[in-house]
TrEMBL record:
CDD domains: PT_UbiA_Cox10 (cd13957). The gene is ctaB. It is an enzyme of class 2 (transferase). The chain crosses the membrane at residues 32-48, 54-77, 98-118, 124-145, 152-174, 180-200, 226-246, 252-271, 283-308. Its EC number is 2.5.1.141. Pfam families: UbiA. It comes from Nitratireductor thuwali. The keyword Membrane applies. InterPro entries: Protohaem_IX_farnesylTrfase, UbiA_prenyltransferase, UbiA_prenylTrfase_CS, UbiA_sf. PROSITE patterns: UBIA. This is Protoheme IX farnesyltransferase.
Length: 310
């Protein structure tokens, strides 16, 4: 708590910067935001029923703003560790382009705006889920889990897995087993995705004092965990077809994509410890990005084709 209080004092005492609009856009983590928007949109498209197109558009924008707000709050709090990691040192707060107080205020204002907009325009279940997602990412994950446990990504991954559930709830006003499956696909995908990154960024996480699994349990244990989660991801990806809310054609695509995920993970499992370039881990990291986009794109196409055929 002392660290939180210190950060609030630093934020309130900070001078105003000369940040450009582009710097504030970077605070929103636009690449992460794009994934959130896409998966939330797929949740809307797959859900039974429909929304007025204008309300659907406003709902998606509110979810995007909420995701960006989470990113801004994360960058505000994590500026100290971002400054010592090569992949994050140029972010707006550690680079000095945006002052901590500005990032905090920006994130808080956007959070309130996003939640109220989604609640008023769609329904309060969707708005409440968005509020919970922002809280979970900014407080539970960023302020607590990330610095305290090697299971940070496993538990914290819930925040990134909720957007399709929010999209589903915006349309239906409910959370159903089908929407939970969409959640599980991303939730189970998150650990192998980030642990693959952690394998070839171990030094960065070590310098920042973040207890990522390779730093705490070692590379061999991490490789085994990656493979286990890859099998679970592959199974979850096929589940929509098994449960009947996606077609057998989707199931075949998901099975193929899942087999690729398991194959790349098997390469990490068998990786030569002397390979300091970590080529299999880098290959898995790249494929995992393709997998998540492709599996949700397949769900979207399947839903659109089903709509045309009905």
């Amino acid at each position: 708590m002392a660290l939180v209080e210190q950060k609030y004092l630093e934020a309130s005492d900070a001078r105003l910067s000369e940040a450009t609009p582009g710097d504030f856009i970077q605070l929103l983590k636009p690449r992460v935001m794009s994934l959130v928007v896409f998966t939330a949109f797929v949740g809307m498209a797959v859900a039974p029923g429909s929304l007025n197109p204008l309300i659907a558009l406003i709902s998606i924008l509110a979810i995007a703003v909420g995701a960006g707000a989470s990113g801004a709050l994360n960058m505000w709090y994590d500026a100290d560790i971002d400054a010592v990691m090569s992949r994050t040192a140029r972010r707006p707060v550690p680079s000095g382009k945006v002052m901590p107080g500005e990032a905090l205020a920006f994130g808080m204002i956007l959070s309130v705006f996003a939640v109220l907009t989604l609640g008023l325009m769609a329904n309060w279940l969707a708005g409440g889920l968005l509020a919970f997602t922002i809280f979970f990412y900014a407080v539970v994950y960023t302020m607590w889990l990330k610095r305290s446990t090697p299971q940070n990504i496993v538990i914290g991954g819930a925040a990134g897995a909720l957007p399709p559930v929010i999209g589903w709830a915006a349309v239906t006003g409910t959370v159903t087993p089908e929407s939970i499956v969409l959640f599980l696909i991303i939730f189970l995908w998150t650990p192998p995705h980030f642990w693959a990154l952690a394998l070839f960024k171990t030094g960065d996480y070590g310098r920042a004092g973040i207890p990522m699994l390779p730093n705490v349990a070692g590379e061999a244990h991490t490789r085994k965990q990656i493979f286990v989660y890859a099998v679970l991801v592959a199974a979850a990806g096929v589940a929509p077809a098994v449960m009947g809310f996606a077609s057998l054609s989707y199931g075949a695509i998901a099975l193929t994509l899942g087999a690729g995920f398991v194959w790349y993970s098997f390469g990490v499992l068998r990786m030569d410890p002397s390979d300091r370039q970590m080529r299999p881990a880098k290959a898995l990291f790249g494929y995992s990005l393709v997998y998540l986009f492709a599996i949700f794109a397949a769900l979207l196409c399947d839903a659109l084709l089903a709509g045309l055929g009905s």
